[in-house]
Design brief:
The chain is α+β, with helices and mostly antiparallel strands. The chain is built from five helices and 24 strands. The strands form five sheets. A six-stranded antiparallel beta barrel has the order 5-6-7-16-15-14. Strands 8-9-10-13-12-11 form a six-stranded antiparallel β-barrel. Strands 17-18-21-20-19-22 form a six-stranded antiparallel barrel. α1 runs antiparallel to α2. It is elongated and about 175 Å long. It starts with 12 loop residues before the first strand and ends with a helix. The N terminus is likely disordered.
Length: 497
């Protein structure tokens, strides 16, 4: 159809073989239990027996009305912002157009005005009066009834029992007869991408995602499917018209009771402790509960002590368990060896090199990162749902990084003392030792190179002269030594007689 987006661009078809025979074109379908991915209400614009095409435009044409817009405060995720404004809705471009005036023309009616008591913030004042509404000057004109003089400028008033102007407004001026209200709040601050919710409109009360916003025209995203395979069947489902009972056993743990062999899987095994049951369709116990144990005949579930139920006789209800109990497996991150090597830097000094990825300093840091990444964000196992992990993560990281032990009780028992700071110091010492030894070796090489250079670059004439002089001196010394050896007492006496 002309107003459906093509499947090649954005998924807009729902395929379930043989299931859509009785679905009429133009009807509205509601999809749920897709994990929030494709939940919503959609208009069917074409179909086969197995495929539905849905309308991609979000809005329907609607004249300007006072509406309320709520959206999350971008500066504070715990707060929402509420705007009272007037919007017209246009289907063909998916646009909400801000109207400057809040009121619609309306003849005099008996209405009810409520506003907060200026003298007591816990109380409201109610007035019954008759007002005519004029859009041109955004004015409510008092015709008869209680005086409106006491309503102060700036007050937030709420109109009820009117025809088309039942909404909240801010008073701009008040002379006792003419109550002028402020024009629509500006929508400029609503950011692109914000999820907004419209209420008090006619056919467009729903939630939308903002695509563009120029302060007057608020364009919202079209409807579309996200590619998603066939939704998996529930792991466990039990539906009954009159046999699901709840027992408040305070101070003991509460129980859920059904016929025997109810709380078991397809293989006949009792549902595992720790899994969560989702209860719907009951009078007062629609919630999610955690199993502590299942009786031997699989008829009774005992809940964890933190989960409580309201006593309820056997009645209708549906119990589902999305998935089987999870399993835990662990694979070591380390696949290398732990061989230690000794490095001898010289004949008298050596050190042992045994650092590898299995060192506790690295292991604690890697374990902290694995705990951080455990589970999927915004699911039951994600870090955002298990904030108690953060203290454990910080303890491991501090223990991995610093020599000083972190304070508090180790969350996983006593940890090995190695840490990255100590590893850095050990590696630094080894490096200094190698550098010092290399310097000694370089000095010895320089000395030997100098000696060789002196020999290679000797002056031959000077060397021969020195050698001849030393030869002459040696000859003279030998001659003197020989003459001395010839001396004796007789020769000495004979020479001196």
């Amino acid at each position: 159809p002309a107003d459906a987006q093509t499947i090649a661009t954005v998924p807009t078809t729902l395929n379930v073989p043989g299931k859509f025979t009785n679905v009429a074109v133009g009807s509205t379908i509601t999809i749920s239990d897709t994990g929030g991915v494709n939940d919503g209400t959609f208009e069917v614009i074409a179909k086969t027996s197995s495929t539905l095409s849905i309308r991609t435009e979000q809005l329907t044409d609607e004249a300007a009305n006072p509406v309320v817009i709520t959206y999350q405060d971008p500066a504070d995720s715990t707060k929402t912002i509420t705007l009272d404004t007037a919007l017209a809705f246009t289907r063909n471009n998916n646009t909400m157009v801000r109207s400057a005036k809040q009121l619609n023309d309306e003849s005099a009616n008996a209405v009810v005005i409520t506003y907060q008591d200026p003298a007591d913030s816990t109380q409201t004042i109610t007035l019954n009066t008759t007002l005519a509404f004029t859009r041109a000057n955004n004015t409510m004109v008092r015709s008869a009834g209680d005086a409106i003089t006491a309503i102060p400028v700036g007050a937030k008033i709420t109109i009820a029992s009117a025809s088309t102007n039942n909404a909240s407004f801010t008073v701009k001026s008040n002379d006792g007869t003419n109550l002028v209200v402020e024009e629509s709040d500006a929508i400029t601050d609503i950011p692109v991408g914000a999820k907004i919710t419209i209420s008090s409109a006619g056919t467009n009360n729903s939630s939308f995602t903002v695509k563009t916003n120029d302060g007057t025209n608020l364009v919202v995203e079209t409807k579309r499917f996200t590619d998603q395979g066939t939704t998996a069947a529930k792991y466990f489902t039990f539906t009954t018209g009159a046999s699901l009972a709840f027992n408040d056993n305070t101070p003991s743990a509460d129980t859920i009771v059904a016929p025997s062999s109810t709380f078991q899987d397809a293989a006949g095994n009792a549902l595992a402790a720790g899994t969560k049951l989702v209860i719907t369709g009951t009078d007062s116990n629609n919630a999610t509960y955690t199993i502590a144990s299942v009786s031997s005949d699989k008829s009774t579930v005992t809940l964890v002590t933190s989960d409580t139920v309201t006593t309820e006789a056997a009645g209708a209800g549906t119990v589902t368990l999305e998935k089987a109990a999870g399993t835990i497996s662990s694979t070591s991150y380390f696949k290398g060896d732990q061989v230690a090597m000794t490095h001898r830097v010289d004949s008298k000094r050596d050190f042992e090199y045994d650092l590898n990825a299995v060192d506790p300093g690295f292991e604690k840091a890697i374990r902290a990162m694995k705990i951080t990444l455990q589970g999927v964000f915004q699911t039951e196992g994600g870090l955002d749902q298990n904030t108690d992990r953060i203290e454990k993560i910080l303890f491991l990281l501090n223990s991995a990084l610093d020599r000083a032990p972190p304070g508090g009780t180790p969350p996983f028992g006593l940890e090995l003392s190695s840490n990255i700071e100590q590893i850095e110091q050990d590696l630094g010492f080894d490096r200094v030792l190698i550098d010092a030894t290399n310097t000694l070796h370089a000095d010895l090489i320089s000395f030997l190179d100098g000696s060789v250079s002196k020999v290679e670059n000797i002056n031959l004439t000077e060397a021969i002269t020195l050698l001849l002089n030393q030869q002459l001196a040696l000859d003279a010394s030998f001659q003197a030594f020989a003459r001395i050896r010839q001396l004796g007492l007789i020769n000495f006496l004979g020479r001196n007689s």
